[in-house]
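Question:
Write out your own:
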Amino acid sequence: MPQTLRDMLLPVVLGALVPLAVGAVLAGNEAPPAASITPATLEVGEEWPGGSATSRQSVDNRDAFSHFSHGIGFEGEMNFRIGNSVFRRLWASAPSSTTASDGLGPLYNARGCQNCHIKDGRGRPPQANWPDDTAVSMILKLSIPPETDEQKQLLADKKATFIPEPVYGRQLQNIAIQGHAGEGHPRITYTDVTVTLAGGEVVTLRRPEYSVAHLSYGPLHPHVRLSPRVAPPMIGLGLIEAIPEADIRAGADPGDADGDGISGRVNEVWSLSKAQVMLGRFGWKAGVASVRDQSGIAAANDIGLSNPLVPHPSGDCTPAQTACLDAPNGNSDHTGGVELGGELFDLLVFYSENLAVPARRDPEDATVLRGKALFHQVGCAACHRPTFTTGEFEGQPHLSGQKIWPYSDFLLHDMGEDLADGWPEGDASGSEWRTAPLWGVGLTETVVGHTFLLHDGRARNVQEAILWHGGEAQRARDTYAALTPEDRAALLAFVNSL
């Protein structure tokens, strides 16, 4: 490819060239006859997946993910509502007459948190090529392999989980304030992959390929790594943070000592708020330790807002982007010298910690209970661990001591080459992903109007997400594919009831 064209268009294919297994069934893992499946029973408290903090509000509308934790108290409710206003705020570029809301950019992906976390729910891949789709809620993360001793030491000391691209930074910002240029136009194309299931059902999956065109600041690094990330749902984050670290670590089996083929690992990451290495439990690769850390990183990288954890007023601008660094910013004395001041930042964090998990739908339905039994028998629960009990969450007793049902072990698992992005993050390899919690997954369409799943939204429903599973999940995926159509429907009914 000519150098000039390569500089303008850098294709990055996600997933290996090895074709997806088509209707494969592992020997000895054929599905048992339908009559041998005994429906499970509803366990005590299972209908309230967030424990007593589960929302008691209706789940039949778009606000199903937007309610506060039950038991939050009057003052907590007030703080939650103010935090919601910060989450929904649309920021403006500086200088602006709205000094409480300026500081956007100069480069950014969205003007506010809710632009990506639609109705506090899951984002989606663009329906068309960026930037034509203005409702985009996916980003492209950028990194390079470490090149210097200093970079290698940063990774070794866990002071960083990756090395940013030297010109474009930690992620590609395709939007900019007036007078500046967005960094580039990401592109996505899909190739159909056909899978045949037991009973003759044919499913067409879509394999994504990403590229970046019209780069505004010169070519990307020749060894750049790109990883698309859809915004995850916001529910239950405080409950996840309240799970004792030891309980998550206890589930890890990095050497597969028990020989079950499942070898979950933890990700050890640097916490900005605690200034120490901690267990990673948030993000698609468990690359963030706490809700507070995630809030500060997202405010800086996605919106370009300096805040108490990331005080840089130019967001993700790099030294190579001098005009970006020299642009006016919204730092001010009345907000503590940053754009998103400490008081509002604390309220934003509180809001994010207290978006309640919705109640289950039809948990006692006979088909759902049959699906629950199949979920365990197929092997899904090996990674999608049903329950934890939260520890003490200081200052928030309503999140403390709760038996919760997130359906995740919050560990890293090798998901195979078809889902690999080749993008290491901390201790996570390019094919490892954190087990995504399943609570609320069946309400995705109600809340955000789509059913796209997985880190890049390639799966258009739960079944497609299952069929993309490989690596440690290959056995469970193949066993699912071998079920009768009726049993597959029951298992899907269970997952969609969560």
